[in-house]
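Exercise 7. Predict the joint structure of the components listed below.
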Amino acid sequence: MSRAIGLLAVFLALATPVLFARAQDFAIGTGIYDITGPAGQINMMGYANPSQTTLGIQQRLFARAFVIVDQLTGERVVYVNCDLAFVTQIVKDYVLKRLQTTYGSLYTASNVGLTGTHTHGGPGGYAEYVLFEVTSLGFVEDNFQAIVDGIFQSIRLAHETVRPAYLFGNVGELLDSNINRSPVAYDNNPASEKAKYTHNVDKDMTLVKIIDPAGNDMGMINWFPVHCTSMNNTNRLVTPDNKGYAEYLIEKDFAASTNSRFVAAFSSSNLGDVSPNTGGPFCMDGPNKDLPCDYATSTCPNDRGMPRTQSCHNRGPAGSNDRENNRIIGNNQYLKAKELYATARQPLLGRLHVRQQYIDLPNYYANVNGTSVKLCRPAMGFSFAAGTCDGPGFLNFFQGDTNPDHPFWDAIVGFIKEPSEELKACQFPKPILLPTGEVSRPHDWHPSIIDFQMFVVGTDLVIMIVPGELSTMAGRRLRDSVRKTLTDGGVISADALVVVSGLASTYTHYIVTFEEYQIQRYEGASTIYGPNSLAAYIEIFNKFAQSIIANTTLPQGPTPPDFYDRLIRLSPQPKEDLQQDGQAFGAIKRDVLGQYTAGSKVSVLFYGANPRNNFMTGSTFLEVQHWTGSTWQVVRTDNDYDTEFRWVPLHASDAEQFISDIDITWFTDASVARGQYRIQYYGHSRSATGVITPFTGLSSTFVVV
Ligand SMILES: *[C@@H]1O[C@H](CO)[C@@H](O)[C@H](O)[C@H]1NC(C)=O
Ligand SMILES: *[C@@H]1O[C@H](CO)[C@@H](O)[C@H](O)[C@H]1NC(C)=O
Ligand SMILES: *[C@@H]1O[C@H](CO)[C@@H](O)[C@H](O)[C@H]1NC(C)=O
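Solution:
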């Protein structure tokens, strides 16, 4: 008996899709497009550290799009995963405008879902609400356009490649890659609820594999909850962080074996309280240096015994070497995804269902313990300013208060007011630092009309597209509740995959459980609509589920405002590039050596210009070229993890012109082919009148032995 089951398992494992004789239910297209914005001058979105502006590229940022069409009903959805801190409403709205121009009414706010990986290493300034724009000094038009255009292009590519396809699901546990960074809040959840789980973060990766009927690999989407904060708030190179590194590795694997481009999306999930820095929180200085931080407050005493948040930092798996920390957490996700892809055999079949609504959250009444309770207008609590052990938060923002060089702050500081009694009562026990929902000058500081969306892909996959960061337990409650409704309603199977897909549509910060909210850690302080936010989220997604069961349509709700014409735009502008030492742009300032042993660092310095003059979208600022005996073959670009492209501006930031060096590094390792190499740099300079001129630089030839 057991032997027969074993043989059956072997047979299933080896079987091709032909086993599923039923016609493919879905047709699928995939697309990927570069969304890397200014690699110079622009504040990074995530840590809100004003001094963390872009100075080059570690790896590029991409949008990865999947169009899924129900072949029976013609219904379609677009799922896009972007290497961004989060998607914003203005990005979604302007992508939709582009889609409408090209495809009419085929793609809408309902069936287009845009999500972000939550990298903290991309340029900011693409949000419309004031609070998200403080450290970037407002809206950054060229970054916004690069993001909107790149997402649109990724969808266009996916649209153009739609063909019959099979979907398979899989789930597996990934250990040693995430920890809870606010366990004291998690611990306040009911004991009976905690007892259901082994870990205080979710360890499952959920994966969808996509292949065509001939068995060709097309792509994958997976979800695993972990912050993309492997690179800390001193990093200045554009990076998609740990998920971007995983995407890069797996796409590189398949590039060698498939003709069409394999697209791998590593999506965020209920990562609100989840850190990739698995070494845990330690004191960096003071009398407790190298000892664990205080458990409840995540602080460390200074020499006078005063508790300080800034001294407490989560250590990565490799200590304070962030490049290595990022590599390890990315590599772990890559290996697990590769394994789950290879062994995925749960076919996803059935009909496609889409529900989406805009909800005016501060005016939403949620049913809490049998009572109808109104959510709150947005407000940030005090712990928000302190930040987390992955990086101090908006404390820097307040230091900006006294900084005479912070024109944005000067422009808005007068608008902050005392919170109303009503707001204090509603947000209780949150001590309010910023009553963002009660300030609307120069325009709204925080969103009120929020975009909620859910895709049900057949009887086996539910994607809840969530505007914000749910904590671990909040995500579990949401998933369990919606799973039960849809299972009871006969829409999904008992073992369906149900995922929370985060940082989508409109950023609403965090959503923690009612019990976690009472503790007011950073995540609770940043749960902006008050203690009953999660109750509302669960109710809204359940209404979507009930509407699918009953086959009813839902009203779309109020349209979010468009602030495009009113946005503050004080971010640094590109300036004239000047030559130095009488040398042409692209001339060598410090050449490579003649010879390197494999494993050593190759470096070359060029006379260069601001990389913001041309983003080199879909291309590269650098090439490592290998002599094949007859031609120079490109073996590395600026998207490779072992290269670094650094912009070194030599003038103070307030000067009228830039004088720049470009520092290119290639970290070779033992696996590098021996032979002759050279490094090429592609730049663009800007004249006083704004004329952009391309140029290039070339190192001498060197030998790797
Ligand atoms: C941040 O990363 C840099 C580069 O890896 C490292 O030198 C520094 O120690 C890190 N800071 C903290 C607080 O871990
Ligand atoms: C609902 O009632 C339960 C049981 O009395 C209580 O533990 C819980 O805190 C209440 N929830 C809210 C949000 O008030
Ligand atoms: C759902 O309702 C639509 C009309 O609103 C109808 O065309 C469709 O057949 C219904 N589907 C089912 C399964 O009843």
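Discussion. Residues 1-21, 395-405 have pLDDT under 50 and may be disordered.
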